Recover the amino acids of this structure.
């Protein structure tokens, strides 16, 4: 059955290391989101793409975070260098979003711990 | 950005009804959503309501929308222990992204 797949599910890394999180959206979905979930801030929108073009990345710290969609089957979120405050669960979501269609499907998330 | 506010915790007894409340500030919200998150899992869409509706019912779930007061609620009838989870309210305006509240942790006790 169709679902959003994120890898890795868990990542522990040392401060200063590069982290790459991957997302395979549901085939045919034209919109892909990256959210970050923490206890303090809840769910924050980091960036999203529509038809592979970045539409909004205003929620993302630009100096260390980057998001790309090299093709329609892969979205990546990279942190370089990582810091302990980046520890969170990162969710990717995709949807066939248009004027009449509104549902976004979430992946299981990548739990990132930076020590 | 615009705010979506929810109470953080709710505890109910099994078999009772649960009502989770949400308020939002964006008057241009077009769709409002309820998502459920179980431990260690992603968010699962439960239901959504278009802003020109005031009620939507789906089996045990009833969504009420008061657009004038910007208040959304989710009622779960005959709450079961399996309903224990975090429930997120979200709104979508003319853009494509969803803006989420911080979530309400629902605990259902036997």
């Amino acid at each position: 059955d169709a679902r959003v797949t994120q890898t890795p599910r868990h990542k522990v890394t040392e401060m200063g290391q590069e982290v790459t999180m991957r997302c395979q959206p549901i085939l045919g979905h034209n919109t892909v989101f990256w959210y970050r979930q923490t206890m303090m801030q809840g769910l924050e929108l980091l960036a999203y793409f529509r038809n592979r073009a970045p539409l909004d990345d205003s929620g993302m710290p630009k100096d260390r975070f980057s998001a790309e969609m090299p093709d329609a089957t892969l979205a990546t979120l990279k942190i370089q260098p990582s810091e302990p405050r980046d520890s969170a669960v990162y969710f990717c979501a995709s949807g066939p979003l248009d004027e009449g269609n509104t549902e976004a499907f979430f992946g299981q998330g990548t739990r990132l711990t930076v020590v | 950005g615009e705010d979506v506010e929810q109470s953080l915790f709710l505890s109910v007894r099994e078999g009772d009804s649960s009502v989770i409340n949400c308020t939002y500030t964006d008057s241009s919200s077009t769709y409002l959503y309820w998502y459920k998150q179980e431990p260690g899992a992603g968010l699962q869409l439960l239901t959504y309501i278009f802003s020109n509706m005031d009620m939507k019912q789906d089996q045990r779930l009833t969504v009420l929308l008061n657009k004038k007061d910007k208040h959304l609620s989710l009622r779960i009838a005959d709450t079961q222990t399996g309903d224990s989870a975090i429930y997120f309210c979200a709104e979508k305006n003319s853009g494509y992204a969803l803006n989420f509240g911080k979530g309400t942790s629902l605990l259902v006790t036997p």
